[in-house]
């Protein structure tokens, strides 16, 4: 099969984010790595994982609080 050890294993789970970054950033890789990335991108479980991640909405600034700012107390 297209996976690291023939069948899909935890090793492939571990490298799924790496495959996503190779594809997402268009990183230059050899033919065998391209086939491995393509296998991930075509895998239904991988596609469901990516879709779930895209659907999550994150607060880009969760610690934005209206706090008072004082000048630095050091020498001027």
What is shown here, in short?
By secondary structure, the protein is mainly alpha-helical. It is built from three helices and no strands. The radius of gyration is 21 Å and the shape is elongated.
Structure description:
The chain is an all-alpha fold. The protein is built from three helices and no strands. It has a domain at 10-55. The protein has helices spanning 10-25, 31-42, 44-55. α1 (10-25) packs across α2 (31-42). The chain is elongated. It starts with 9 loop residues before the first helix and ends in a 21-residue tail after the last helix. The relative contact order is 0.12.
Low-confidence stretches: none
**Global morphology:** elongated
**What is the tally of beta strands?**
0
**Which quaternary structure do these chains form?**
single chain
Q: Could you estimate the helical fraction of the residues in percent?
A: 40-55%
The chain-level structural class is mainly alpha
H/E element order = HHH
Please compute the radius of gyration using only Cα atoms. 21 Å
Please outline the major beta sheet: none
Average the pLDDT over all residues and give the rounded result.
Answer: 93
**How far apart lie the N and C ends?**
68 Å
Percent strand: under 5%
**Tally of helical segments:** 3
């Amino acid at each position: 099969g297209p996976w690291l050890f023939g069948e899909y294993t935890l090793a492939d789970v571990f490298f799924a984010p790496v495959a996503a970054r190779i594809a997402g950033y268009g990183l230059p890789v050899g033919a065998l790595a391209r086939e491995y990335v393509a296998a991930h991108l075509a895998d239904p479980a991988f596609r469901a994982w990516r879709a779930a991640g895209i659907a999550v909405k994150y607060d880009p600034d969760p610690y934005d609080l209206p706090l008072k700012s004082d000048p630095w107390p050091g020498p001027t």
